[in-house]
Fold these 2 entries.
Entry 1:
Amino acid sequence: MLLGVNIDHVATLRNARGGFEPDPVLAAKICEKCGVSSITTHLREDRRHIKDEDVANIKKQIKTYLNLEMAVTDEMQAKALEYLPHSVCLVPEKRQEVTTEGGLDVAGQLDKITKFIVPLKAKGIEVSLFIDPDEKQVRASAQTGAQFIEMHTGSYSNAFATDREDDEFQKLKNAAKLAQELGLRVNAGHGLDYKNVGRMHEIAGLYELNIGHSIISRAIFTGLESAVKEMQELVK
Ligand code: PXP
């Protein structure tokens, strides 16, 4: 299993003061030095953390696979075609949410998403759909032409160490199995941390985990390199 790191919260901290530090590009360089499989940035409509120039600079200065998380909007499609990340991960986006709260409703907008990804794929950008571990959403994702799904692990993470953990975990396991049977590669992420990440090894064929908040939080106390390496040990 591979580890991709989401560096959005380095930019969140920078934006709290409006200056230049901490620099997300430096964070991406440290992650690259650690050998992570990908670096994720989420360019949100309100630019609350990552800004356009961050994506451009990371793309210019980093060789590691760049995954751009974004909403299904014309503006973001144009940005992806301008920056040409290695992949995009399509996510739902609500202005008021603190973080991406649920998965993308692919089944409810199958036509729109299928058309949306055509120009991205034509430019060689791989496409991933961030969905809840739900049979209907997995089946719809397989029809869009996307190569990957990323399973939203938020419900599992919230249920970790409670009597709901097994149920939430089983949903991930079932969704991953179905997705792979339908020819999709399967990533997972959201809310994963140093304690709950272990069970991801029980999901056969999981390709990559995308983890942000817990790594950046630990990095404040231990340094980013150490926080990334510690997670890499748990994920590999
Ligand atoms: N994957 C996706 C699609 C996300 O939206 C996020 C959060 O930005 C993550 C992974 C990482 O989640 P966390 O920061 O909780 O590790």
Note: The chain has eleven helices and eight strands.
Entry 2:
Amino acid sequence: MIAMDESNISFFKDGCRLDGRKADQLRPLKIEVGVLARADGSCYIEMGGNKVIAAVYGPREVHPRHLQEVTRAIVRYRYNMASFSVEERKRPGPDRRSYELSKVSREALEPVILTSYFPRSVIDVFVEVLQADAGTRTAGINAASVALADAGIPMKSLISSCAAGKVADTIVLDPMKEEDNFGQADLPVAMTPNGDITLLQMDGGLSPAELHEAVEMAMNGCRQIYELQRKSLVDKYSQLESLSQVPEQEAEACD
Ligand code: UDP
């Protein structure tokens, strides 16, 4: 969050936000499953101006071997922002921010992954941010969760994630870049469909009442995102089902 006087920025016009949304509205969301041929599972997501791709590999052998756990699979998560994803070119390679985001995102997903099914192995999750517009960690978690399911990794549930923020003393859902950079607070949340929270961070300041409102709003956003995650998986696998039912004669004609 940039420390800047936000008093000269008008975040609302006629009761709507800069991009025309209401305070409690998500940005447009698009989810595509199985977009990478060489990954075990993958997902492409657009959350407003964010464009993020997730690839999952594994469970597979751990290298280096000393990282092996005898009772469970380890999960590795690498968040990476492309240098062209932001207005001011980002220096390529890992930095403090990407280490933090990789860690919290892994911790957001790990509780639902049944790692004990795959001792001595690793599940690798790669998240590449192609275009950033605030909320990239939440978009990455949403994509990674769907990509894990697409890879057939046994999980207790999906994880859905979005942030709430505070701008001009108003709590808003899913802040875009201007709201994130010049707003008063940002609160990313991730949760299971049952409402168990696996990520809760806060940047900026909120009163106890505002915190309560922001968490409720973010959880509500997560519920909406979950429906789309679920639908994108169901759509992909029901398409495969109908393809596998193509009559033999038709299938031969394509050879
Ligand atoms: N950002 C940027 N350059 C950077 C890091 C971030 O322009 O090196 C922008 C980008 O749009 C990002 C936003 O600032 O989405 C908010 O970043 P933050 O660290 O709060 O993480 P995010 O909200 O993306 O999870």
Note: The pocket of uridine-5'-diphosphate is lined by residues 86-87, 90, 97, 132-137, 177, 180, 186 (CB under 6 Å).
